[in-house]
Design a protein that fits this description.
The structure holds 2 protein chains of 2 kinds. By secondary structure, chain A is mainly alpha-helical. Chain A contains 2 helices and no strands. Classes of the chains: A mainly alpha, B mainly alpha. Chain B: It comes from Roseospira visakhapatnamensis.
């Protein structure tokens, strides 16, 4: 096999070193620094972009939080106002109701008083009329007028009985 | 029919003799020049206009770069990156040697034991020097791991020494043998195609096609194996084990 023929060894070794070193020097001088830099640059850019994205996300979250807080606050305020208004309205309604019912009961009392007065007046009128009738009737029927005091007493007795 | 090993014959193109030493520019040297030229061309064109968002050729250049860089980072760690330029060169040199060797008529310099052996011995020597310069005589602990019972020393130490010393042989023979055998196989089967003629020759022809695909795979794989073993040896030297 030609692989084990030592006559070619020196030239193979020599050119191996020459071309390996050539490639090594080209890569270390021209390729690796530039390529390494561009790859690092990209990684840095990506890292920076991710960092900024995280920052924006945090800011968005903060804004959402603030918004929700404001919303909750407003809702609380609205509820407080609603409650206050309800209380005010209820108080006003209650006061008005009391006023009206007081006025009504006053008028009822007045009315009742008037009714009672009218009634007692009517009763008095009826009693007087009855007395007069008793006096007049006794006079016409018997020709002898019953005394007004006696007539009054009997009318009163009948009225008490009727009541 | 030509001998299947004729393809490995080294023939001088420009005979150069320095004294009694023969430094002729041969077909092997031409193949090395070709490999260096192709890999340099890829990186020249690929890095001519560097962009944050890479173009096609820049992507190829970066693919090679990151492939080897990750190999070094994963196997050796951050400290290994100072040896990255050498390992990068090594990978490209072996990879393009193997790959361009698949071009019909082109010489495969990685099929020569001298080339693979020289690379392996250089790696072995460099790794040993790095190991001793980092750990001093403590590097000798490589041959007797901590925690092993002292009674096992008479067996363990010779085994470890032999396995350490056999590294350059296994490293170089693996690559050389893979390349050589693949090319011989292709040559023999291709010879059958001619010998069997137009009809029956189809069978070995199909085999040649299949093995050609396999050989491309092996060419890439062996470059990878050669490089990753170098990384592993380097890791041993830097971190011990």
């Amino acid at each position: 096999m030609p692989q084990f023929d030592p006559t070619s060894f020196t030239s193979q070794l020599f050119w191996l070193i020459v071309f390996f070193v050539l490639l090594y020097r080209y890569l270390t001088r021209m390729v690796i620094p530039r390529l390494g830099e561009v790859i690092e640059d990209r990684e840095r850019t990506v890292r920076e972009d991710i960092r900024r994205a995280d920052e924006f996300k945090a800011r968005t979250n903060a804004a959402i939080e603030a918004y929700e807080k404001a919303l909750a606050e407003a809702r609380g305020q609205a509820q407080a106002i609603l409650k206050e208004t309800q209380e005010t309205v209820a108080q006003a309604t209650e006061a008005r109701r009391r006023e009206v019912s007081e006025a009504l009961s006053r008028r009822i009392e007045e009315g009742e008083a008037r009714i009672a007065a009218a009634r007692s007046q009517a009763l008095e009128g009826a009693r007087e009329a009855a007395c007069d009738v008793v006096v007049a009737l006794s006079d016409k029927l018997m020709g002898d007028a019953v005394g007004s005091t006696k007539a009054q007493a009997s009318v009163d007795a009948v009225m008490r009985e009727a009541r | 029919m030509a001998s299947p090993v004729q393809q490995f014959e080294i023939e001088p193109i420009v005979p150069i003799n320095v004294g009694i030493v023969d430094l002729s520019f041969t077909n092997s040297a031409l193949a090395m020049a070709f490999a260096v030229a192709v890999s340099s061309a890829i990186f020249y064109v690929g890095t001519r206009r560097l962009a944050l968002v890479p173009g096609r050729l820049q992507s190829v250049a970066e693919l090679f770069y990151e492939f080897v860089a990750n190999m070094v980072k994963d196997n050796v760690g951050r400290e290994g990156m100072q040896y990255f330029p050498f390992i990068f060169t090594l990978f490209l040199f072996v990879f393009f040697g193997n790959m361009l060797g698949m071009v019909p008529g082109n010489f495969t310099y990685t099929s020569h034991i001298l080339v693979t052996g020289a690379l392996a011995l250089f790696i072995f020597g460099a790794v040993t020097v790095i190991g001793f310069s980092r750990h001093g005589l403590g590097y000798l602990r490589m041959f007797f791991p901590k925690g092993a019972p002292i009674l096992t020393a008479p067996i363990l130490i010779p085994i470890e020494v032999i396995s350490y010393l056999s590294r350059p042989f296994s490293l170089s023979v693996r690559l050389f043998a893979n390349m050589t055998v693949g090319h011989i196989m292709l040559k023999v089967l291709a010879g059958f195609v001619v010998a069997l003629g137009l009809v029956a020759g189809v069978v070995p022809l199909a085999a040649v096609i299949g093995i050609t695909v396999l050989e491309f795979f092996i060419a890439a794989l062996q470059a990878y194996v050669f490089t990753i073993l170098t990384c592993i040896y380097l890791n041993d030297a830097i971190h011990m084990h």
